[in-house]
Amino acid sequence: MSQNLSTFIEIDEFHYQKDEIVTAHAGIWGDFNFSLNGLLEYLIEEKRFLSPPNYGIWIPPQTTHCSTALADHSTHYICIRIHPTLCHLLPNSCSTLSILPFFRQTVSELLRLKQQPQQNTDYHQHLLQVLFDQLQFAPAHQQYLPQSDHPQLLPILQALSDPEKFTKSLQQILTEFPLSERHILRLSQQQLQLSLSEWRNRVKIVFSIHQLQQGVAIKRIAYQLGFQHSSSFIDFFKRRTGQTPAQLRESQQTVSLNSN
């Protein structure tokens, strides 16, 4: 791309405290939002979007959205604004995009360059191009944790998201319902576009991030989720967030210190 990308892509960071609200608004630029240290939650055109640190929320231009900071600690949000002339290269509807640790590192480097009085223009342009390329080719999902009000599926999802039942296997929970396992699994694919096992894993990730934000010990969280060893939980968490629980907690503490 021959244009000066710095006029087409803007990156800003925000630190929101608990219960701080970003009121409903829509812009002429598209927004890609993600959190460096926890869950990001938005209400977009009456739908709830949620993403842990390895996912972000793409909001096309002229799309009304708002957010509320729910975590007890300061939440570090990143907003990447995309000029309307580039938005046709990204999804035309709100999407949850999967991002890699390299993406976060690229953003961190661009934010570092932003603080410098003099920039290496070629290097800055290269990083912006790398960033935009990653956005274009990032796997897109409708929602990280899709929901359904289907009368047969809804009570099953409620059971699967009950922390009191995390130690039970998926099969043990499904036997509580008068439906065949095959029918339930087919229903989940139709309604959620996601397997029930993956949906439940994502519920566990959301739960564990909330627990980490509240200062619960990693060993305790592992026990709550049904893991026999903390190391198994740490591997599970890192595969799905790109960070270990300790790294996520450290990033929360760092943001809290910097915002004081």
Automatic annotation (TrEMBL):
**In what residue span(s) does the HTH araC/xylS-type domain sit?**
151-251
InterPro entries from the UniProt entry: Homeodomain-like_sf, HTH_AraC, HTH_AraC-typ_CS, RmlC_Cupin_sf, Tscrpt_reg_AraC-type_HTH
NADP keyword on record: no
Which PROSITE patterns does UniProt cross-reference here? HTH_ARAC_FAMILY_1, HTH_ARAC_FAMILY_2
Position of the signal peptide: none
Keyword terms, alphabetized:
DNA-binding, Transcription, Transcription regulation
Instruction: Give the Pfam families listed for this entry.
Output: HTH_18
Q: Can you provide one Gene Ontology molecular function annotated for this UniProt record? A: DNA-binding transcription factor activity
PANTHER family annotated for this entry?
A: ARAC-FAMILY REGULATORY PROTEIN (PTHR11019:SF190), HTH-TYPE TRANSCRIPTIONAL REGULATOR NIMR (PTHR11019)
Q: What is the protein name stated in its UniProt record? A: HTH araC/xylS-type domain-containing protein
Q: Which organism is it from?
A: Acinetobacter rudis CIP 110305
Output the lineage of the source organism: Bacteria, Pseudomonadati, Pseudomonadota, Gammaproteobacteria, Moraxellales
